[in-house]
Amino acid sequence: MRTADPLSLNDDQLLRYSRQIFLSDIDVGGQSRLLNSRVLVLGLGGLGSPVSIYLAASGVGHLVLVDPDRVELSNLQRQIVHTSKSVGEEKVDSARAALKALNPDVRITVCNRLLDESDLVREARGVDVVVDGTDNFQARFAINRACRAAEKPLVSGAVVRLEGQISVYRHDQPDSPCYNCLYRDIAETAGDPAQRSSWENCAETGVLAPVAGIIGCVQATEVIKLLVGFGETLCGRLLLLDARTMEWNCVRMKKDPNCKVCGVGTGGKI
Ligand SMILES: [Zn+2]
Q1: Distance between CA 3 and CA 195 in Å, rounded?
Q2: How far is the CA of 97 from the centre of ligand 1 (A)?
Q3: pLDDT digits (tens, 9 = 90+) for 138-197
Q4: How far is the CA of 81 from the centre of ligand 1 (A)?
Q5: Cα–Cα distance between 109 and 26 in angstroms, integer?
Q6: How would DSSP label each residue in 231-246?
Q7: 266: CA distance to ligand 1 center in Å?
């Protein structure tokens, strides 16, 4: 994280972010840190929408948005950064316009193509925190490996039907478990459609719109905590929501010493 001069906030910024600055966990110094932070948001769908909206509104200084898709009518039910007018546009362009309208302070860089792993590592190296808002296991495993190589914290979320889950993988810290520790079995069978878990893809299973919003908001909260450096993140814990009963469960996770991504001797190689 970068250090920042608290005096760098102008009067408009002090007013815009006043309700955050009132929080003792944030204060002027924390707000200044947010304004000097960079976050990579991978996917501008049901999770990336609320994540990017709240990070922009909160005053994260630079968002790097990545999504290769265009806005479709069926996206609008839950991908709330896009509007009816955006149908047919690149998602990154649609999101950039919406986020700039919300907060012109925020610098936004966009990429409208699918990143391979070396691109992901390069992009992750250039930011403070990475947010995974993608909707398939292949992308999630690739993002996890890239964050390990770049040694950057990863805020991961997933949502299907009325269920969601969130965790934080501190690839910048040696003792943190990673996404691969959690889903090693799936990682090893990801190429076999018969072995895929039902967490695979909301395009096939459906999702209740506000549940994506809930999970995305938790991800955005974790990003802000990481950037400012307060509280206790979900590192080492997997938070699970069943919105049908509105029950939350938190499962402790341990680092797998034999994990092929973060285990002993892997050295962050991909
Ligand atoms: Zn691992």
Answers
A1: 46
A2: 37
A3: 999 999 999 999 999 999 999 999 999 999 999 999 999 999 998 876 666 655 555 555
A4: 32
A5: 25
A6: S--SBTEEEEEETTTT
A7: 10
Dist CA 48 CA 95 (whole Å): 10
Token pair of 75 as six digits:
């996206």
264 torsion bin: left (phi>0), alpha (psi -120 to 50), beta (else): beta
Residues 22-32: pLDDT tens digits? 999 999 999 99
Domains of the chain: 12-252 (3.40.50.720)
Q: CA-to-CA distance for 50 and 54, rounded, in angstroms?
A: 6
Indicate the burial class of 201 (C-beta count within 10 angstroms; 0-12, 13-18, 19 or more). Answer: middle
Locate tokens 């990003």: which residue? 223
- Helices 27-35, 209-228: crossing angle, 10 deg rounding: 110
Q: CA 196, 199, 204 angle in degrees (round to 5)?
A: 85
What's phi and psi for 247, nearest 5 deg? -105, 135
Question: How many whole angstroms from 153 Cα to the centroid of ligand 1?
Answer: 13
Q: Name the strand (E) or helix (H) holding 224.
A: helix 209-228
Question: Is residue 88 within 8 Å of 71, Cβ to Cβ?
Answer: yes
Residue 90 CA to residue 96 CA, distance in Å, equals 10
